[in-house]
Amino acid sequence: MAVPTDKTTLISAIQINYGKLRNELITIPENLAIIVELEGHAKGTQMSLHNLVAYLVGWSELVLQWNQKKDAGERVDFPETGYKWNELGKLAQKFYSDYEPIDWTALLQQLDQTVDRILELIERKTNTELYEQSWYEKWTLGRMIQFNTASPYTNARGRIRKWKAARKLT
User: Fold this and answer.
1) Helix axis angle, 150-166 to 49-71, nearest 10°
2) What span, in angstroms and rounded, lies between the C-alpha atoms of 34 and 108?
3) d(CA 151, CA 17)
4) CA-to-CA distance for 92 and 51, rounded, in angstroms?
5) How far is CA 134 from CA 44, 49, 89, 118, in A?
6) Angle ∠(9,13,19) on CA atoms, nearest 5
7) What is the pLDDT of residues 68-97, one digit of tens each?
8) Nearest 5°: phi and psi at 101?
9) Global pTM exceeds 0.90
10) Nearest to residue 49, comparing CAs of 16, 26, 19?
11) Following DSSP, what letter does each residue of 72-132 receive, concatenated?
C-alpha cells in the first residue's frame, strides 16, 4: 500500500493494516504469546508476541499523548520524556514492562481501543491539519500517525507470519 497522503487514505491504511494484523493476533493462544523467541526491537534482544503488542499499544498511546499535549498548547518531549530518538530500544523495553501485567486477551482489547481512539483523532482533524502543515520538525501529523500505526502494524504482521511459519502454525 502506498504511503497515505490524505485523511481518507490514512484512515484506510490503518483500518486495512490493523484488520490484517488483528486476524493474525486472534489465532494465537496466550501460552504461545508469552514465549520470548522473536527478534526484539533493540539489537541483540528477544521478545514475545505479548511484547510486540505492548510495543504497538505503547506507540499508539504516545501518538495520542503527543496530540493531547499539542492541542493543549503544552510542550511535547519527542519521542517520550526521558528518551531520545536514538534510544528507541530502551523505549521498547519500557513498553514491554509497562504492559507485562496485562493478560493477552486484555492486551488485545487495549490495542483495539487504542486503534479506535487513533481513528477518532484522525476524524476530528482536517486534511489541512493532517497533511498540509508541519507538525513535528519536517513531518506532518498524518505522517507521524502513519509512522506509528499503519506501518508498524504491517511490520508486526510480517513478524507474526514468519513466527507462525517457523512453528508450522499456518
Assistant:
1) 180
2) 13
3) 8
4) 9
5) 35, 34, 26, 19
6) 145
7) 999 999 999 999 999 999 999 999 999 999
8) -70, -15
9) yes
10) 26
11) TT----SSBTTB-GGGHHHHHHHHHHHHTTS-HHHHHHHHHHHHHHHHHHHHHS-HHHHHS
